[in-house]
Design brief:
With 249 residues, this protein is α/β, with parallel strands linked by helices. The protein has one domain: NAD(P)-binding Rossmann-like Domain (Rossmann fold, 3-Layer(aba) Sandwich). The chain is built from seven helices and seven strands; from the N terminus they run βαβαβαβαβαβααβ. It has a seven-stranded parallel sheet, with helices on both faces. β1, α1 and β2 form a beta-alpha-beta unit.
Length: 249
Protein backbone atom coordinates (compact mmCIF):
# COMPACT_ATOMS: atom_id res chain seq x y z
CA UNK A 1 0.00 0.00 0.00
CA UNK A 2 0.97 3.62 -0.48
CA UNK A 3 -1.67 5.35 1.65
CA UNK A 4 0.51 8.33 2.58
CA UNK A 5 2.05 9.30 -0.74
CA UNK A 6 2.40 13.10 -0.96
CA UNK A 7 1.48 13.41 2.72
CA UNK A 8 3.53 14.97 5.50
CA UNK A 9 3.34 13.36 8.94
CA UNK A 10 4.73 14.52 12.29
CA UNK A 11 5.70 11.95 14.93
CA UNK A 12 6.74 13.31 18.32
CA UNK A 13 9.16 11.08 20.20
CA UNK A 14 10.00 9.52 16.86
CA UNK A 15 13.59 8.48 17.51
CA UNK A 16 12.87 5.14 19.23
CA UNK A 17 10.23 2.63 20.24
CA UNK A 18 6.66 3.00 19.02
CA UNK A 19 7.36 6.45 17.60
CA UNK A 20 10.19 5.23 15.39
CA UNK A 21 8.20 2.17 14.30
CA UNK A 22 5.32 4.45 13.27
CA UNK A 23 7.64 6.90 11.50
CA UNK A 24 9.24 4.06 9.54
CA UNK A 25 5.83 2.64 8.64
CA UNK A 26 4.60 6.04 7.42
CA UNK A 27 7.77 6.46 5.33
CA UNK A 28 7.38 2.98 3.87
CA UNK A 29 3.94 4.03 2.62
CA UNK A 30 5.21 7.15 0.90
CA UNK A 31 5.01 9.87 3.56
CA UNK A 32 7.45 12.65 4.19
CA UNK A 33 8.07 12.25 7.93
CA UNK A 34 9.02 14.83 10.54
CA UNK A 35 10.24 13.38 13.86
CA UNK A 36 11.09 15.00 17.17
CA UNK A 37 13.12 13.89 20.15
CA UNK A 38 15.60 15.10 22.75
CA UNK A 39 18.73 13.12 21.87
CA UNK A 40 20.47 14.57 18.78
CA UNK A 41 22.40 11.38 17.99
CA UNK A 42 19.31 9.18 18.26
CA UNK A 43 17.34 11.66 16.17
CA UNK A 44 19.89 11.67 13.37
CA UNK A 45 20.13 7.87 13.40
CA UNK A 46 16.35 7.63 13.15
CA UNK A 47 16.13 10.30 10.45
CA UNK A 48 18.58 8.42 8.27
CA UNK A 49 16.18 5.45 8.21
CA UNK A 50 13.26 7.54 6.95
CA UNK A 51 14.40 8.67 3.53
CA UNK A 52 16.07 11.75 2.11
CA UNK A 53 13.04 14.02 2.65
CA UNK A 54 12.71 13.26 6.37
CA UNK A 55 13.15 16.05 8.89
CA UNK A 56 14.37 15.70 12.49
CA UNK A 57 13.83 18.46 15.06
CA UNK A 58 15.14 18.49 18.62
CA UNK A 59 12.20 19.14 20.91
CA UNK A 60 11.32 19.02 24.61
CA UNK A 61 7.91 17.37 24.72
CA UNK A 62 7.02 18.96 28.07
CA UNK A 63 7.78 22.57 27.16
CA UNK A 64 5.24 25.06 25.82
CA UNK A 65 8.04 27.19 24.42
CA UNK A 66 9.42 24.16 22.60
CA UNK A 67 5.96 23.37 21.21
CA UNK A 68 5.68 26.86 19.76
CA UNK A 69 9.23 26.69 18.42
CA UNK A 70 8.48 23.42 16.60
CA UNK A 71 5.39 24.92 14.97
CA UNK A 72 7.40 28.00 13.96
CA UNK A 73 10.17 25.84 12.48
CA UNK A 74 7.70 23.86 10.38
CA UNK A 75 5.86 27.01 9.31
CA UNK A 76 9.02 28.75 8.14
CA UNK A 77 9.83 25.68 6.01
CA UNK A 78 6.37 25.80 4.45
CA UNK A 79 5.39 22.46 5.98
CA UNK A 80 1.70 21.64 6.38
CA UNK A 81 0.65 18.45 8.13
CA UNK A 82 -1.72 15.68 7.11
CA UNK A 83 -1.35 13.67 10.32
CA UNK A 84 0.27 13.99 13.72
CA UNK A 85 1.14 11.14 16.08
CA UNK A 86 1.51 12.70 19.54
CA UNK A 87 3.64 9.90 20.90
CA UNK A 88 6.34 11.50 23.08
CA UNK A 89 5.87 10.58 26.72
CA UNK A 90 7.44 9.47 29.95
CA UNK A 91 6.61 6.56 32.25
CA UNK A 92 7.89 6.70 35.81
CA UNK A 93 6.30 4.29 38.27
CA UNK A 94 6.36 4.78 42.04
CA UNK A 95 4.11 3.84 44.98
CA UNK A 96 2.02 6.57 46.59
CA UNK A 97 4.42 7.14 49.47
CA UNK A 98 7.35 7.64 47.07
CA UNK A 99 5.71 10.08 44.64
CA UNK A 100 7.02 13.62 44.88
CA UNK A 101 6.18 16.85 43.10
CA UNK A 102 9.05 16.44 40.65
CA UNK A 103 7.72 13.08 39.41
CA UNK A 104 4.20 14.50 39.15
CA UNK A 105 5.33 17.58 37.22
CA UNK A 106 7.59 15.62 34.87
CA UNK A 107 4.80 13.17 34.06
CA UNK A 108 2.02 15.68 33.54
CA UNK A 109 4.20 18.22 31.74
CA UNK A 110 5.39 15.58 29.25
CA UNK A 111 2.27 13.45 28.88
CA UNK A 112 -0.52 16.05 29.13
CA UNK A 113 0.58 19.66 28.98
CA UNK A 114 3.09 19.02 26.19
CA UNK A 115 0.72 17.26 23.76
CA UNK A 116 -2.08 19.75 24.48
CA UNK A 117 -0.05 22.84 23.73
CA UNK A 118 1.77 21.12 20.88
CA UNK A 119 -1.57 20.50 19.20
CA UNK A 120 -2.62 24.10 19.90
CA UNK A 121 0.55 25.39 18.25
CA UNK A 122 0.22 23.03 15.27
CA UNK A 123 -3.47 23.65 14.60
CA UNK A 124 -2.83 26.36 11.95
CA UNK A 125 -0.55 23.93 10.08
CA UNK A 126 -3.10 21.11 9.80
CA UNK A 127 -4.55 20.42 6.38
CA UNK A 128 -8.27 19.83 6.17
CA UNK A 129 -8.86 16.11 6.66
CA UNK A 130 -5.83 15.78 8.96
CA UNK A 131 -5.77 13.10 11.62
CA UNK A 132 -4.36 13.39 15.14
CA UNK A 133 -3.47 10.21 17.01
CA UNK A 134 -2.54 10.42 20.68
CA UNK A 135 -0.58 7.65 22.42
CA UNK A 136 -2.57 6.63 25.49
CA UNK A 137 -2.15 3.53 27.65
CA UNK A 138 -4.25 0.74 29.09
CA UNK A 139 -2.89 1.85 32.47
CA UNK A 140 -5.66 4.45 32.34
CA UNK A 141 -8.11 1.55 32.74
CA UNK A 142 -6.21 -0.67 35.19
CA UNK A 143 -5.57 -0.33 38.90
CA UNK A 144 -1.92 -1.32 38.58
CA UNK A 145 0.05 -0.59 41.77
CA UNK A 146 2.69 2.15 41.51
CA UNK A 147 1.22 3.51 38.26
CA UNK A 148 -1.08 6.16 39.75
CA UNK A 149 0.58 9.27 38.31
CA UNK A 150 1.30 7.75 34.91
CA UNK A 151 -2.19 6.24 34.65
CA UNK A 152 -3.83 9.56 35.56
CA UNK A 153 -1.83 11.37 32.88
CA UNK A 154 -2.94 8.88 30.24
CA UNK A 155 -6.57 9.09 31.38
CA UNK A 156 -6.29 12.83 30.83
CA UNK A 157 -5.16 12.56 27.21
CA UNK A 158 -7.87 9.99 26.46
CA UNK A 159 -10.39 12.55 27.68
CA UNK A 160 -8.73 15.26 25.59
CA UNK A 161 -9.21 13.19 22.46
CA UNK A 162 -12.97 13.45 22.90
CA UNK A 163 -13.18 17.16 23.68
CA UNK A 164 -10.59 18.19 21.10
CA UNK A 165 -12.34 16.07 18.47
CA UNK A 166 -15.48 18.10 19.05
CA UNK A 167 -13.53 21.36 18.77
CA UNK A 168 -11.56 20.44 15.67
CA UNK A 169 -14.25 18.72 13.62
CA UNK A 170 -15.37 22.00 11.99
CA UNK A 171 -11.82 22.26 10.62
CA UNK A 172 -12.10 18.71 9.26
CA UNK A 173 -9.59 17.31 11.77
CA UNK A 174 -10.14 14.02 13.62
CA UNK A 175 -8.58 13.10 16.98
CA UNK A 176 -8.29 9.53 18.25
CA UNK A 177 -6.23 7.52 20.73
CA UNK A 178 -4.27 4.30 20.50
CA UNK A 179 -3.77 2.75 23.94
CA UNK A 180 -1.07 0.08 23.97
CA UNK A 181 -0.63 -2.58 26.55
CA UNK A 182 2.87 -3.79 27.44
CA UNK A 183 5.15 -3.36 24.43
CA UNK A 184 8.78 -4.34 23.84
CA UNK A 185 10.32 -0.86 23.70
CA UNK A 186 13.19 0.98 25.43
CA UNK A 187 10.57 2.72 27.59
CA UNK A 188 10.49 -0.29 29.89
CA UNK A 189 14.10 0.41 30.77
CA UNK A 190 13.17 3.95 31.85
CA UNK A 191 10.57 3.21 34.48
CA UNK A 192 12.86 4.19 37.32
CA UNK A 193 13.12 0.61 38.62
CA UNK A 194 16.27 -1.34 39.46
CA UNK A 195 17.05 -4.29 37.13
CA UNK A 196 15.76 -6.99 39.47
CA UNK A 197 12.50 -5.16 40.12
CA UNK A 198 12.13 -4.38 36.43
CA UNK A 199 12.55 -8.05 35.48
CA UNK A 200 10.06 -9.16 38.11
CA UNK A 201 7.60 -6.47 37.07
CA UNK A 202 7.90 -7.41 33.38
CA UNK A 203 7.30 -11.09 34.18
CA UNK A 204 4.29 -10.25 36.32
CA UNK A 205 2.83 -8.00 33.61
CA UNK A 206 3.39 -10.58 30.86
CA UNK A 207 1.57 -13.20 32.91
CA UNK A 208 -1.56 -11.02 32.71
CA UNK A 209 -1.56 -10.82 28.90
CA UNK A 210 -3.84 -13.49 27.41
CA UNK A 211 -1.63 -13.72 24.32
CA UNK A 212 1.28 -14.57 26.64
CA UNK A 213 3.74 -11.98 25.34
CA UNK A 214 4.54 -8.30 25.10
CA UNK A 215 3.40 -6.49 21.97
CA UNK A 216 5.75 -5.29 19.27
CA UNK A 217 6.19 -1.65 18.36
CA UNK A 218 5.29 -2.41 14.74
CA UNK A 219 1.96 -3.86 15.86
CA UNK A 220 1.04 -0.60 17.58
CA UNK A 221 2.28 1.37 14.59
CA UNK A 222 -0.13 -0.46 12.30
CA UNK A 223 -3.06 0.79 14.39
CA UNK A 224 -1.64 4.32 14.37
CA UNK A 225 -1.45 4.24 10.58
CA UNK A 226 -5.01 2.94 10.33
CA UNK A 227 -6.26 5.85 12.46
CA UNK A 228 -4.26 8.28 10.30
CA UNK A 229 -5.54 7.05 6.97
CA UNK A 230 -8.71 7.81 4.98
CA UNK A 231 -9.97 4.29 5.67
CA UNK A 232 -10.72 5.37 9.27
CA UNK A 233 -12.60 8.52 8.24
CA UNK A 234 -15.65 7.49 10.32
CA UNK A 235 -13.63 7.01 13.53
CA UNK A 236 -13.64 10.14 15.69
CA UNK A 237 -12.92 10.72 19.39
CA UNK A 238 -12.31 7.01 19.88
CA UNK A 239 -9.75 4.96 21.79
CA UNK A 240 -8.47 1.75 20.21
CA UNK A 241 -6.90 -0.58 22.78
CA UNK A 242 -4.02 -2.74 21.55
CA UNK A 243 -3.04 -4.86 24.53
CA UNK A 244 -3.18 -8.55 23.63
CA UNK A 245 -6.45 -8.84 25.54
CA UNK A 246 -4.93 -7.71 28.86
CA UNK A 247 -7.72 -5.31 29.75
CA UNK A 248 -10.48 -7.18 27.94
CA UNK A 249 -10.34 -10.87 28.83
Amino acid sequence: MNRFANKTILVTGGSSGIGLAAAQAYAAEGARVVITGRNPAALEHARSSLGAAAVAVRNDAGSIASAKELAHTLSTQGIKLDAVFLNAGVAKFAPLDAVDEDLWDLTFNTNVKGPYFQLQALAPLLNRGASIVINGSINAHLGMPSSSVYAASKAAVISLAKTLSAELLPAGVRVNVVSPGPVETPLYGKLGLDPATLEATAAQIQSQVPLGRFGKAAEIASTVLHLSSPESAFIVGTEIITDGGMSQL
